[in-house]
């Protein structure tokens, strides 16, 4: 029945002369219509149960694996238009990998009019300096109405955040937040932040660094405020914004589990509260990461627990990329008698990469070339010496 309806509809359409004087019964090579089996059904809006070979073939040419291409539910009626869309993306700096990511996430984008629909949106995001690679991870934004959706939300953000540079940074960090409803979500969240006492300057900062807060419910925002206040932070404290940022991405259950993990190492409630207040991101680390770092500090470096918790940024540093290379440098300098073996190691490990390099690597690079090798990971850190005896790391 469906097949006969499709054939009759297709025959009727072929009898209608084209406006350009082209016989529509003859295929247009540049348009590359889908095979008869899927295009005829598509003409009357009938869903096709089998994947369309032409669509699959085209999506594979875009870089999609066959399984993903076969799973696509959309039909590409014109490969010429799809080619034009891909060409447009390239003019805006999208790489082939970026375009593949767009197609993987939203193949429907290939069916949109490149100049009328896509170009104005790409111009908008380019003016906000949002890199193509980031936009490729949120192609739904390109499917939204420019006048009814994107511009009203961006104008709203401008009124709170300020400069287009900061608005662009906010969108870059959380592009999906731009999809939420303006009146049902964005405005109520900002109103709630103000009602709970957060200054406008802090709201601007919060949206710049964590715009995903706009995706939360007002009830969740209220709960987050209560959780941050438990850390001893007030709404006017600089750290309050970062506390909100932390809990935006951390469920209450996860927070309580991580608190229990730190407590299992013997950290007191008061010391943990102070540490989180100074460095909220120590709750963002995975459980295994926390265990690994604390065991290294306590068992291998023989730090006191209080020394670590007084400097919680140490827990936030990468063990492999920061802590261990710095330990290797200091170990080499101790071996060469270039620094006091009784140096306060917890404090020595602190600071930016540039500061540490200037203080311990560049200063001694001429006399002790091994410090450079140690900093680059070419000399393994095996432990510190107690006098002339090496105290090796635990296996």
From TrEMBL:
GO terms for biological process: chloroplast organization; DNA-templated transcription termination. Keywords: Transcription, Transcription regulation, Transcription termination, Transit peptide. One of its GO terms (molecular function) is nucleic acid binding. It comes from the Eukaryota. Pfam families: mTERF (PF02536). The keyword Transit peptide applies. Coiled coil: none annotated. GO terms for cellular component: chloroplast. The keyword Transit peptide applies. Belongs to the mTERF family. This is Uncharacterized protein. It comes from Sorghum bicolor.
């Amino acid at each position: 029945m469906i097949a006969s309806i499709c054939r009759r509809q297709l025959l009727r359409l072929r009898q209608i002369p084209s406006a350009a004087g082209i016989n529509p019964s003859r295929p247009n090579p540049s348009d590359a219509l889908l095979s008869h089996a899927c295009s005829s059904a598509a003409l009357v809006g009938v869903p096709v149960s089998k994947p369309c070979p032409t669509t699959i073939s085209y999506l594979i040419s875009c870089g999609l694996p066959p399984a993903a291409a076969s799973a696509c539910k959309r039909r590409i009626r014109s490969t010429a238009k799809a080619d034009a869309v891909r060409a447009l993306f390239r003019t805006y700096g999208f790489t082939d990998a970026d375009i593949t990511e767009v197609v993987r996430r939203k193949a429907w984008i290939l069916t949109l009019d490149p100049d009328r629909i896509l170009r104005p949106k790409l111009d908008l995001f380019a003016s906000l300096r949002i890199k193509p690679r980031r936009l490729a991870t949120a192609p739904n934004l390109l499917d939204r109405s420019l006048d009814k959706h994107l511009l009203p939300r961006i104008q709203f953000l401008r009124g709170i955040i300020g400069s287009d540079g900061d608005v662009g940074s906010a969108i870059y960090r959380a592009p999906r937040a731009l999809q939420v409803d303006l009146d049902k979500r964005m405005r109520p969240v900002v109103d709630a932040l103000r009602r709970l006492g957060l200054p406008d300057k802090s709201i601007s900062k919060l949206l710049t660094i964590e715009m995903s807060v706009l995706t939360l419910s007002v009830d969740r925002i209220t709960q987050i405020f209560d959780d941050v206040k438990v850390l001893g932070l007030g709404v006017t404290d600089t750290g309050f914004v970062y506390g909100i940022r932390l809990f935006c991405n951390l469920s209450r259950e996860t927070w309580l589990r991580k608190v229990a993990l730190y407590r299992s190492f013997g950290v007191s409630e008061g010391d943990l509260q102070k540490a989180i207040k100074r460095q909220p991101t120590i709750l963002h680390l995975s459980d295994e990461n926390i265990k690994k770092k604390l065991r290294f500090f306590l068992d291998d470096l023989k730090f006191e627990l209080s020394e670590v918790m007084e400097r919680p940024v140490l827990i936030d540093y990468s063990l492999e990329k920061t802590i261990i290379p710095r330990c290797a440098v200091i170990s080499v300098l101790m071996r060469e008698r270039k620094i006091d073996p009784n140096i306060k190691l917890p404090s020595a490990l602190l600071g930016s990469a540039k500061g540490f390099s200037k203080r311990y690597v560049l200063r001694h690079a001429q006399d002790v070339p091994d410090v450079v090798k140690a900093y680059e990971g070419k000399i393994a850190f095996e432990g510190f010496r107690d006098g002339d005896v090496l105290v090796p790391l635990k296996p």
